[in-house]
Amino acid sequence: xxxxxxKAGDGRIEKVISGAVAFADRxxxxxxxxxxxxxxxxxxxxxxxxxxxxxxxxxxxxxxxxALTPLLERYPRQLSGGQRQRxxxxxAIVRDPQVFLFDEPLSNLDAKLRVQMRTEIKELHQRLKxxxxxxxxxxxxxxxxxxxxxxxxxxxxxxxxxxLELYDHPANLFVAGFIGSPAMNFLSGKLVxxxxxxxxxxxxxxxxxxxxxxxxxxxxxxxxxxxxxxDIGEIGxxxxxxxxxxxxxxxxVYCRVAGQEVTAVSRARHTFRPGDTIxxxxxxxxxxxxxxxxxxxxx
Length: 299
What we know:
- The chain is of the alpha+beta class.
- It is elongated and about 70 Å long.
- A hairpin with a 3-residue loop joins β2 and β3 (27-30).
- The two termini are 40 Å apart.
- The protein has helices at residues 42-56, 60-65, 81-94, 111-128, 139-145, 163-168, 173-178, and strands spanning 13-17, 20-23, 27-30, 99-103, 131-135, 149-153, 156-161, 185-194, 197-203, 206-210, 220-225, 230-246, 251-257, 260-266, 277-282, 287-290.
C-alpha cells in the first residue's frame, strides 16, 4: 500500500512513516509492512522515524504488548521487517485513536508471534473498546478476532455476518470455500431420489446422501461438506485414501471420491494407509447445496 504524504493540519493524512498513518490524529492505521515515503531523503525520514520510535514506544504497555522492550534502543536499520511492523503497531496503540485501521499487520511475523499477537490485539480491543477495521486474507485471523466479518471478492461484498454465521450459513461457494480450515469440500453431481431419501449422484455408482429439499431430480448441483462433518466408517460413499496427516489433536485424511479430491478430519487416531478404501458419510444436516452457475446456496 503506497500512501501520499500531506502537510499536517490539512485534515487529511498527517504523515507517512514506517507503515503508520495518522488521519488528523483521530484515526490510526498500520499497513502491511513499514514503507518509507517517496518524499524526502532517506536521512531525513530515518531521523524522524528514530525520534518517533523513542518518544512513542517509551510507553511501557505498548512495548510490552508487542515484545519490543529489548528493541527500544535499536535503530530502524537494525530491525527486521516483522519488528518494524510491530513498531508501527505500537505507535498506533499509544496515540489512543478513536478508530484503528489494520492492513494485514501480522503477515510479516513468525507463526508463534502471530498467534500471540492475535490474542493481544483482541484483548486490547476488548479493553479499549476502540472500533477497529482489520483487513486480512487469513481466515483464521478473521474468525478468531472479528465481531463481524465482511467477506469481499473482487471489490464486491459477498456476505456480512458474525464468524459463526458465515461458517454455519455461507451465502455462496466463495464464502463457503474461504471460511474454514481445511476448506470445505465441493463435489459436483446431480440430485437424485434413492432409497427413500435424497442424494447427489457424483458418479454412476456413487451417491452422496444429502438432506431432503424441494429441488427437482436431475438438477446439476455442487454439494459442500466441511472436513469435520464427514463421518468416517459410516456407510456412505467409497473413498480412496491418498495421504494421512496426524496432527495430534486430530487426523486429516485426504481422499479421492469418484476422481474428486476430498478431505476428512477426525478426532479418532486412524491408521489408514495410502490406497486404503474407506466409507465417508456427511453428518446429518451438515451438507450444503450450491448452484454451479451462480454459486448461490440453494439448500
